[in-house]
Design a protein that fits this description.
Oligomer: single chain
Distance between the termini: 56 Å
Order of helices and strands: EHEHEEEEEHHHH
C-alpha cells in the first residue's frame, strides 16, 4: 500500500447514543483507528468477511449512526497460525474488509460494553468523591463531558443502569461506600 493511500474503512452501524459517545472520545471523527494489538482490533479482525457482490460502500461524509474502523496497512497485517491447517494464514484487507449485519451487531455490543464501563467508572468516581452529588447531576455531567445529547439517550435508562450496577451482588462489586451512600 502506498504511503499516501487512503486507508480501507469498515462500516459499523451503531445506536445514536453510542455514536455520539464514540464521536466525542474520538475528537469529532467517525473514523476509529484501533491499536492493532488491542482488543477492538482483535474483535473486528476475527469477524471480517469477503465483500459481497451487491455491497455498496457508504459515502465518506459523517452520518449519524455510522462509524468506520480503519484497517491497518497490508504490511501491518501479521500472519495468524492455523493449527488445523498447520500453516500461517495472511489476511488481505483488499478482499476481506466487510462486516455483515450480525458482525456489526457484535462489534456494536463490544463498543457498548466500553461505553457502559466508562459510564460506570465515571459515576463511581463522581459519587465516591462527592457524597453530596446527586445522581441526576452526575449523569448530566457525564453526558456533558462525552457530548451525548439527552434526545439520544434517556436519563432513566442511564439511572437504571447505574442502580443495577451499584446494587448487584457479584464479583467485581463497586466499593461499599458507593453502595451505602444511596
Amino acid at each position: 500500500m502506498a504511503k499516501n493511500a487512503e486507508p480501507i474503512l469498515v462500516t459499523v452501524h451503531v445506536n445514536s447514543a453510542l455514536w455520539e459517545y464514540l464521536i466525542g472520545v474520538n475528537g469529532g471523527s467517525d473514523v476509529m483507528a484501533p491499536d492493532y494489538q488491542g482488543e477492538l482490533w482483535v474483535f473486528v479482525k476475527s469477524r471480517l468477511q469477503t465483500v459481497p457482490s451487491d455491497y455498496r460502500p457508504e459515502t465518506p461524509e459523517i452520518k449519524k449512526g455510522i462509524i468506520r474502523i480503519a484497517l491497518p496497512p497490508q504490511r501491518g497485517a501479521s500472519a495468524i497460525y492455523n493449527l488445523q491447517l498447520k500453516r500461517e494464514i495472511f489476511t488481505n484487507f483488499i478482499y476481506r474488509n466487510y462486516l455483515d449485519e450480525e458482525a456489526q451487531r457484535q462489534v456494536e455490543g463490544f463498543l457498548m460494553k466500553g461505553f457502559k464501563k466508562t459510564f460506570r467508572d465515571f459515576m463511581t468516581g463522581a459519587v465516591s468523591c462527592n457524597t453530596q452529588q446527586a445522581i441526576k447531576d452526575a449523569i448530566e455531567k457525564f453526558c456533558e463531558v462525552y457530548r451525548i445529547e439527552m434526545d439520544s439517550i434517556s436519563y432513566e435508562m442511564l439511572r437504571k443502569d447505574w442502580y443495577r450496577f451499584r446494587n448487584r451482588d457479584s464479583r467485581g462489586d463497586p466499593c461499599t461506600e458507593v453502595k451505602e451512600n444511596f
